[in-house]
Amino acid sequence: MKIIITTLGSDGDIFPFIGIGLELQKRGHSIIFLTSDYYREMIPKYGFTFIPIDDYSDAEEMFTSVDPENMMDQFPKHLEYFITSPMKKVYEAIEKNYDKNTVLINWKLMAGAKIASEKFNIPLVSIYLSPSQIRSVIEPPRYTFSKILPLLPKFVIRQGYIKMDQWIDSLIKETINTFRTDVGLEQIETSMLDWLETPDRLLAVFPEWFGNLQKDWPAHSIHTTFPLFVESKAGKNQEALEQFITHEKKPVVVTPGSQLAKAHEFFKVMTNIVKKLQLRGIFRTKYREQLPEDLGDTILHIEYADFEKLLPQSALIIHHGGIGTVAQAIKSGIPQIIIPWGLDQYDNAIRIKKLGIGDYIDPKKIDEKKISKKITRLLESKQVAANCKKYAESFREVDPFKQTCDIIETMVH
After folding, report:
1. Burial, 289: exposed, middle or buried (Cβ in 10 Å; 0-12, 13-18, 19+)?
2. How far apart are CA 186 and CA 195, in angstroms?
3. pTM of the predicted model, to two decimals?
4. Do 260 and 278 contact (CB within 8 A), yes or no?
5. Which end of the chain has less neighbouring CB within 10 Å, N or C?
6. Cα–Cα distance for residue pair 356/383, rounded to 1 Å
7. Burial of 152 (0-12, 13-18, 19+ CB in 10 A)
């Protein structure tokens, strides 16, 4: 069987698909991986055929321009980057490489893969990495910490989705329908998001205790589990990291995400907190320039870390709420504090707090005293420790890819 995987984004959006590809490769299937040119060195080393669907400079500009304080202003640009810009390249790559034994695996916004699936009658499996990626009126995704949303009547939530669809359609529908006409397909009359959520199979790759299957999710939705995969590589400060974590006092890991380059204030606050609480901190970011110049002896900066190895040796992690980091922290049995800046991160943060394994901070209300109190409470709470242990044990003897890949293997015509 030939598997064509299509995805875009940062490490947390790419790593799960690498893990799925590796498992399918072990089973004897060939893998073609369509993603950003930013990953041109990483993808081929796993034995996958790599096809870039953007330019390296475009990806780098997208990553470094993300501004947590202006996410809505950047939304049209993000839609273009993820949906309409790569659409033709994805379609043409699939057209050139598919055969009668091909299955497409994609992240939900890959319009080019959806169009190719329809045009060439290729089975399409969409991977949804977190609950908030699947729209629901029964349990609507949370994109803020407002407590009003869960109290709203269902018809109000439906109207909200309609308004959102109208806005998104005004930005991308004409471009997508023009391309569909060019390749001989009928135009889409429904909303673009509704259309994108109609693959042959929708895999919700997270456990039910993290996000329950809702009655209004697409009928072809199936739960599996977190597809945890970590890129194994040695960072520049690897030797210093190994020495740092041998200290008897476990460190607090701090990261705003693998690609965020505008987190100066975040790191300034975290530096002050770590020093005042007399903690030991590991600050992970690719961009050293956003850290205070003097970190002292109790804070170590690293560009990259294998969280599968680092987090079990840590006391707590403070992060942005990306689903990959969330899952890895749960598996490691440590509490987490989430300070989100967009996407699925607010929803993930709320779920972590409900599970009793962490807390969150509104990014618009970052306060040293408030964060310090939450760190202290989480580190000292026996109940939080028990909850963390409980959910960590749910990962034991669970293959992160078997069920997902078993389903994919049934999809070939």
Report:
1. exposed
2. 13
3. 0.93
4. no
5. C
6. 8
7. middle
